[in-house]
C-alpha cells in the first residue's frame, strides 16, 4: 500500500494544502490566482507611475516642437548727436522786495555862544592942552587907526555818514525747478559716462526689431541732494519711451547738483537719445 503522505513532485503547495478538502471553496481559487494577479498589478502600477513621471517631459517636448522660431533683434547704440540745448523762456518772477532804505543820519552841531562878560570901562584921560593946540584941523584928510581885518571862522567839518552800495543777490528757492543756473548739474565721470550706463542697461527685447532709428528726448530733475526724479520721455515709440524711463531710473549714481549763488538748487536736465534697431 502506497504511503499516503508521499506527494508527487508536480503538485503545487496549494494542491497539497487543499488535498482531501473542498476545492470549490473560494480560498483555493484566490490562492491559486494570487501570483498571476500580483504580477498583473505590478505591471499596471509600474506603467501608471512611468506615465505620471514622464508626462511633464513629454509636455515640454511637444511645446518646444510647436513653439514658433525665435526672432533675434540686434540693437546697437548709435552715436548720440549732441543737440543744442533747449532754452526755456524764463518764467516771470516777482522781483524781490527792495532792501529797506537807510535814512541818512544828520548830525546837528550846536554852536554854543559864550555868555558876554561885562568888561570894565577903561577911561583915557584927555591929552593936555598943548597937544590939543598942535592938532591941525581943516580940509586935510588924516589917516585913522585901521581895524584888523575880519577873518571868518572855518566851516564845521562835514559829519554826514557815507552811504556804501552793496550788491544784493536774489534769493534762491528750495522748491523751484531752474532751467538756467550758474553751475549746471554733473554726473560722476561726465555725460559720456552717463550715456554708457544708459546703453549698457537698456533692454531692447521689448522692441520688435524693425523700428529702425528711434529718437526720444529724456527730461528729469536733478534734486538738491543729487538724486533723480520726475523722469519723462518724449518720443513717437511708446515702448522705447517706457524702457528709456526704466533705464534712467535704474541708475542709482548721484549727480553733483546745480548751483546758483553757491547754493544747491533743483535743475531740469535734458538728454536727446537716439538708438537703431535692425531685424
UniProtKB/TrEMBL annotation:
Keyword Transmembrane helix: yes
TM region(s), chain numbering: 42-62
Keyword Metal-binding tagged: no
Matches recorded under Pfam families: TonB_C
Superkingdom per UniProt: Bacteria
Protein name according to UniProt: Energy transducer TonB
Region (Disordered) residue spans: 84-103, 144-174
InterPro entries: TonB-dependent_transducer, TonB_C
Organism the protein comes from: Chryseobacterium gilvum
UniProt keywords, alphabetically: Membrane, Transmembrane, Transmembrane helix
Residue ranges constituting the TonB C-terminal domain according to the UniProt record: 208-273
